[in-house]
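Narrative of accomplishments. A recurring question from our advisory board has been how the design workflow behaves on a single, concrete structure rather than in aggregate. To address it, we present the structure tokens for one chain from the evaluation set, followed by the sequence designed for it. No filtering or post-editing was applied between the two.
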């Protein structure tokens, strides 16, 4: 790619405006919902964030030179501090800088992007800003690689990017684009004293049909997780680029596709690997795998600047139950203390599963939350599911206050490792119960749903989703669909053993 006049214009515009290009008003938002947290840590609470954010260091390249010369702003256009400022404005507590690479990009990262990240941390101190990258994954699509915040974070990423990002070598080296190389990368990551974390990005974007996968496949995910279960932990449930259906003025582009999914579409804004009931995600959970979903912006260029993106936090949020602390946020992501939402449909979601006790009292070890495991004992056959969620008190970024129309409690059996590594179905997954507004109760500013699981005779999992729509299952999103009119949230699972 060579430099374009449009790219240069954007760079000049950034300089003139101090980087606040494409800023939009937030309806009713006066600050983060978690802003009462004590700086530097404090008790765990639901902290919203985004692990897939691009800056001007997602570069283009001038191929007339050897090696190709990187062009800042050639792909994504905003400085890191602008991303962080907008993340704060839209209520986020944490983000991950995930620029993707190209020839010798590892050197650019270490010499230019990392100092820029340090400056962004100083200028926007209320947002935790992780160092990471969108890995050009060997033999696959892209992945968010999140580096722990430690003194050696720059060196860790340089070594991983230079050794394993498939586009980093110059001249190009085909051996970098193999499954063998990816498994080697995971083995190296597993041995590091400060372990990174990896989520596959937009995993079914290259799928050509429902269950007809492209660059990312079920077998690959199983191989990754088997090789490094503490590193490869999930995929984007809802991809970014959700503003692809919007024109600059916010009107609908009839040819736009949510997520930029040009083949098989998203379903209620979510990737088919997550949205399909009893599909790949349920297949992985049915093996007992701790495989989590997230929701991100994949922000490159805001739609008001002619791009396909929302700002970090403007539309998609990944909530992590953690203290306001780098290590605890990463721990929450690694251990599945996560729920996701789009369009600010909810800003709190607690899913707990408890042992039913004859006396009504619940022992301290008798309750599990998302990412955790409840162990039934002796004659225990039943479990109580409680869902608590909260609708935001202020309008979302569009100035609307969407309402939850229905909550679904979903269960599936855990039957052990799949004999077929390509399997993408779990036939035991079902909607256990559906609850609408007439079937739940209010407790202050929260809405509460309770349901009893009876006659549990083996290991299983429970997860929850909710929607603003009347759709019983998320339908494929047609071209030109309004991202604000079709909203969903998903919890990660609670596991039950007996």
């Amino acid at each position: 790619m060579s430099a374009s006049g449009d790219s240069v214009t954007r760079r000049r515009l950034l300089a003139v405006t101090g980087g606040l290009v494409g800023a939009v008003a937030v309806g009713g938002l006066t600050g983060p919902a978690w802003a009462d947290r004590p700086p530097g840590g404090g008790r765990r609470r639901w902290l919203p964030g985004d692990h897939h954010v691009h800056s001007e260091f997602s570069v283009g390249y001038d191929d007339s030179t050897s090696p190709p010369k990187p062009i800042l702003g050639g792909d994504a256009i905003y400085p890191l501090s602008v991303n962080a400022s907008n993340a704060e404005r839209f209520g986020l507590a944490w983000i991950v800088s995930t620029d993707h690479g190209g020839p010798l990009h590892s050197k650019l990262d270490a010499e230019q992007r990392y100092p820029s990240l340090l400056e962004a941390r100083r200028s926007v101190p209320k947002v935790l800003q992780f160092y990471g990258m969108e890995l050009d994954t060997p033999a696959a699509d892209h992945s968010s690689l999140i580096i722990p915040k430690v003194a050696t974070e720059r060196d860790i990423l340089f070594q991983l990017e230079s050794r394993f990002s498939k586009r980093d070598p110059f001249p190009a080296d085909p051996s970098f684009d193999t499954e063998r190389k990816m498994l080697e990368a995971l083995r190296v990551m597993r041995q590091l004293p400060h372990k990174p974390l990896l989520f596959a990005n937009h995993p079914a974007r290259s799928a050509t049909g429902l269950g007809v996968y492209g660059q990312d496949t079920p077998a690959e995910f199983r191989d990754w997780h088997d090789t490094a279960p503490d590193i490869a932990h999930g995929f984007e449930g809802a991809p970014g680029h959700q503003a692809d259906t919007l024109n600059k003025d916010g009107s609908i582009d009839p040819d736009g596709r949510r997520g930029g999914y040009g083949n098989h579409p998203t379903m209620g804004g979510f990737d088919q690997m997550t949205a399909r009931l009893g599909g790949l995600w349920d297949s992985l959970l049915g093996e007992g795998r701790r495989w989590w979903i997230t929701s991100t912006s994949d922000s490159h260029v805001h739609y008001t600047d002619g791009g396909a993106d929302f700002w970090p936090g403007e539309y998609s949020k990944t909530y992590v139950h953690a203290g306001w602390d780098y290590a605890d946020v990463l721990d929450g992501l690694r251990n599945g203390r996560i729920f996701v939402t789009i369009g600010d449909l909810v800003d709190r979601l607690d899913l707990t599963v408890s042992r039913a006790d004859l006396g009504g009292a619940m022992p301290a070890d008798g309750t599990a939350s998302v990412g955790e495991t409840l162990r039934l004992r002796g004659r225990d056959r039943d479990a109580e599911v409680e869902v608590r969620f909260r609708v935001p008190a202020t309008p979302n970024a569009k100035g609307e206050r969407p309402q939850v129309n229905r909550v679904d409690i979903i269960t599936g059996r855990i039957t052990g490792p799949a004999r077929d590594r390509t399997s993408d179905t779990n036939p035991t997954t079902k909607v256990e119960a559906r609850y609408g507004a007439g079937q739940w109760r209010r407790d202050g500013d929260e809405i509460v749903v309770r349901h009893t699981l009876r006659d549990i005779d083996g290991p299983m999992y429970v997860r929850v989703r909710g929607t603003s729509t009347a759709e019983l299952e998320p339908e494929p999103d047609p071209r030109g669909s309004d991202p604000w009119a079709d909203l969903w949230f998903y919890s990660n699972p609670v596991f039950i053993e007996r």
